[in-house]
User: Which sequence fits this backbone?
């Protein structure tokens, strides 16, 4: 892998990886550290871009690092209310839209952790069901089911 | 009945695509702090390293050609030697010549008083053979 390739991968995926790690760990510093470790490994091991799906590989490496970290630190927190997920909407004075935005953020944060993670990976980060299955070591069917359930729960939360 | 507006599936999908997680530190800043120098150092180090693989690769090709050439010369010269040996196979004429030479040399060691007798003997032997 050349320095140019590495920079290209970094520019394309570093922030996505940090966002993914942030909504899993709820910790900006930790997610930044893990994302840097992942990229450090990619560079030092000279992982080739052509060797499969690099995005999946990065997310898989990040997931493994995150799990390893939580196991080491025995961080088994119940993440419930500290997530900082926001909607990027055009600034406006529309009260209706502002209300919807707040309701949506609240409903999203109320989703069970596993459903939220899978849904965010799919909708926010554009990972396919197959890619998510590989990253989380689950079957594609399980991912499809989780996403379907997440959407149903989200809709219920929103329309309560 | 609640006066809240209901969300359609399309609306939910649209909102999901706009979800953002704000990041505190800019990625370019992290790059310049953590990776830029590392990548540059590695690039410099790798440019200084002799390309061992290429060196062996070139020498390997050269050695293979050398072995092929030497083998070709060796076997062709061996064939020539064999051909020459075949050509030098003793013919009846040369056999007689050799015998004459041998007789001439032996005659040097024969005493004068024994020469007639020895000559007669050799003559008989050559006639018989």
Assistant:
């Amino acid at each position: 892998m050349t320095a140019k390739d590495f920079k290209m991968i970094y520019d394309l995926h570093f922030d996505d990886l940090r966002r993914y790690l942030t909504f899993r760990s709820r910790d900006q510093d930790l997610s930044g550290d893990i994302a840097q470790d992942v990229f450090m490994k990619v560079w030092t091991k000279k992982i080739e871009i052509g060797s499969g799906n690099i995005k999946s590989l990065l997310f898989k490496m990040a997931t493994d690092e995150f799990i390893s970290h939580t196991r080491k630190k025995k961080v088994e927190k119940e993440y419930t209310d500290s997530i900082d997920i926001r909607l990027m909407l055009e600034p406006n004075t529309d009260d209706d839209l502002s209300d919807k935005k707040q309701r949506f953020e609240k409903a999203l944060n109320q989703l069970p952790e596993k459903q939220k993670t899978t849904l965010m990976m799919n909708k926010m980060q554009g990972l396919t069901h197959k890619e998510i299955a590989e990253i989380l070591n689950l079957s594609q069917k399980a991912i499809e089911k989780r996403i379907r359930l997440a959407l149903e729960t989200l809709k219920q939360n929103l329309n309560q | 009945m609640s006066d809240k507006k209901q969300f359609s599936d399309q609306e939910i999908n649209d909102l999901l695509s706009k979800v953002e997680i704000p990041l505190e530190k800019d990625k370019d800043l992290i790059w310049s702090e953590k990776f830029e120098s590392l990548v540059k150092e590695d690039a410099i180090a790798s440019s200084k390293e002799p390309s061992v693989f290429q060196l062996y690769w070139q020498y390997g090709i050269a050695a293979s050609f050398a072995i092929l050439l030497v083998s070709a010369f060796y076997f062709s010269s061996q064939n020539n030697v064999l051909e020459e040996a075949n050509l030098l196979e003793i013919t009846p004429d040369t056999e007689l010549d050799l015998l004459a030479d041998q007789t001439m040399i032996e005659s040097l060691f024969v005493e004068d008083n024994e020469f007639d007798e020895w000559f007669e003997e050799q003559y008989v032997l050559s006639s018989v053979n």
Remarks:
- The two ends of chain A are 52 Å apart (CA to CA).
- The first helix of chain A runs from residue 3 to 25.
